[in-house]
């Protein structure tokens, strides 16, 4: 079965509320990452991405740093293994 995702791009002021909540759940709650390590102060300088399902529910997030590194990739547990990316 194929699942369709919409990828939304924006800055932290646009996507931060939703992206931040996904990261809080995945990194701080599930993986026990310390809050001061997760919130490193770099989000304002990054481009952010949300993956949304066909109903518009945000399932995952990632950020792109100015130097081109991808980081803070997080997918909600309910969506893991459900979708895959293809070109």
Structural account:
This protein is of the alpha+beta class and 87 residues long. The protein has a single domain, classed as Gcn5-related N-acetyltransferase (GNAT) (Aminopeptidase), CATH 3.40.630.30. The protein is built from two helices and four strands; from the N terminus they run βααβββ. It has a four-stranded antiparallel sheet with strand order 1-2-3-4, covered by helices on one side. The longest helix is centred in the N-terminal third of the chain and has 19 residues, at 12-30. The radius of gyration is 13 Å and the shape is globular.
Q: Mind sketching the topology for me?
A:
Blueprint: E1 6-10, H1 12-30, H2 35-38, E2 47-52, E3 58-64, E4 70-75
Antiparallel strand pairs: 1-2, 2-3, 3-4
InterPro entries: Acyl_CoA_acyltransferase (IPR016181), GNAT_dom (IPR000182)
Protein name: N-acetyltransferase domain-containing protein
Domain N-acetyltransferase: 30-82
At the third CATH level, what is the topology name? Answer: Aminopeptidase
Domain count: the total is 1
Mean pLDDT score: 92
Can you tell me the CATH architecture? 3-Layer(aba) Sandwich
- Category from helices, strands and their pairing: alpha+beta
CATH domain class: Alpha Beta
Radius of gyration: 13 Å
| Residue share in helix | 25-40%
Order of strands, widest sheet: 1-2-3-4
Low-confidence stretches: none
Order of helices and strands: EHHEEE
């Amino acid at each position: 079965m194929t699942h369709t995702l919409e990828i939304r791009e924006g800055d932290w002021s646009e996507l931060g509320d939703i992206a931040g909540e996904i990261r809080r759940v995945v990194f701080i709650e599930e993986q026990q990452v310390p809050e001061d390590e997760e919130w490193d102060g770099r989000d304002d300088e990054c481009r952010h991405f949300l993956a949304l399902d066909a109903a518009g529910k945000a399932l995952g997030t990632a950020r792109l740093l100015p130097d081109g590194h991808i980081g803070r990739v997080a997918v909600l547990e309910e969506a893991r293994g459900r979708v895959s990316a293809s070109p």
